[in-house]
Amino acid sequence: MLTTLLIIIYIAFISLGLPDAILGSAWPMIYQDFNVPVSAAGLSTMIVSGGTIISSFFSAKLIRRFGTGIVTTASVFLTAAGLLGIYFSPSFLWICILGIPMGIGAGAVDSALNNFVALHYEAKHMNWLHCFWGIGATAGPFIMSLFLLKENGWRIGYATIGFIQAVLVIGLVVSLPLWKKFETHTNEEEATKSDINIRALLKIKGAKPALVAFFCYCAVELTTGLWASSYLVISKGIPAEKAAKWAALFYLGITVGRLVAGFLAMYFNNKKMIRIGQIICICGALLLIIPYSSYLQLAGLILVGLGCAPIYPAMLHETPNRFGKEISQGIMGIQMATAYVGSTLMPPLFGMIAKATTFNLLPYFLVVLVLIMFVTSERVSKVCKDKMV
C-alpha cells in the first residue's frame, strides 16, 4: 500500500511543480493583453505566496482533522480551479484573486506530503520527491511555450496545466481509501496526543534555529534564481543571452543534484547531507567572486545549485528525528511557512540592496545566508535528541 501511495505522491509533486514557473513564461503576453505595468507580476506572486504561507501555518490542524489524503485532494482541486479560472479571467484583477486558492492549495499539499514522506519513507525518497518537483517546474514553462504563439495562447497554456491538475484530482479521489486505511491506524495511535498550537511549538528546543535555517535556505535558492542572470550581465559583463542560459543551469544543478542525492542518502545520514550541501554552496558562491574567467561563474552557479540540492529534502526528512513524529506535522507546517517567507522577502530585499549599491554583493549575500544556515542547523542538531521515527 505504501508503494502505491509513494507513486501517487511522486506524481503529485510533478503536478505541484507545474504551475510554479508558468507566470514568468506567460507574463510578457499577459501584461500586454491586460494593459498593466510589467512590474505588476510581483503583486500576483506575493498574493500566491501569502496564501501559501497562511495554509502552511494551519496545515497541521487541517491534516489532524481531515487526514493527509483529503487535504492533498482538496489542495490540488483548489490549484486546478485557480489555473482553469485564469483561462476565463477578464482582467488582471482576476488573476490576483485566483492566486488565493492557488497559494492556499500549494502550501497545504506541500506541507502534508513532505511530512508524510518524512514519517514513512527513507531519505532517498525525499530527495527524489523534490527532484520530481524540479521536473514539474521545468515542464510547466515548456508546456506554456507550446501555446504562446497562438491566439490567447497563454490562456490555453493555463487551461492545459489546469486540466492536468484536474486529472490528478480524480486520481487522488480514487486513492482516498488507501490514505484512509493507513491514516485510521495512525490516528488511533495518536488519538491521546494533545493538540499543540504554534506558540507552544515555537518554545520547543531547536524549533527557532530550525526555522531560521529554512528561512535562509529558501532565501539562498530564490535569490540566486532571480538575480543570477542580472549579476552575470551587470557585474561580470557576460552577454544577456549567455547569462540566461547559465542561470538556468542553476536549477538544472538542483534537479540533477537531488537525483544524485537520493543515492548518496543511502550512505550518508541527513545531518551529513545538509553539511555537504552547505559546504558546496559556499564554494560555489566564492567562485562567483573570482574575476579571472567567466567559466568560473558558470561553475559557481552549478555548484550553488548542486549544494542546494540535498539541503532542503534532508532538513525536511530530519524533522521527525529532531522533534518526534507526534508533533512533526505541526513543526513541518511552520517550517514550510517560514521557508516561504524567506523566498518571498529576501530576493526583493537583495534587489533593493543591489540598486542602492552594486550587484557585486550577490556572492557575499549568499555566503552570509549559507553561514547563518550552517550555524543554525548545527545548533538544531546539538539541542535536539534523535528519536525513532
From TrEMBL:
Gene3D superfamilies listed in its UniProt record: MFS general substrate transporter like domains (1.20.1250.20)
One term of GO molecular function: transmembrane transporter activity
Keyword Transport: yes
Keyword terms: Membrane, Transmembrane, Transmembrane helix, Transport
Main location: membrane
Family stated for the protein in its record: Belongs to the major facilitator superfamily.
Protein name as catalogued: MFS transporter
Source organism per UniProt: Zhenhengia yiwuensis
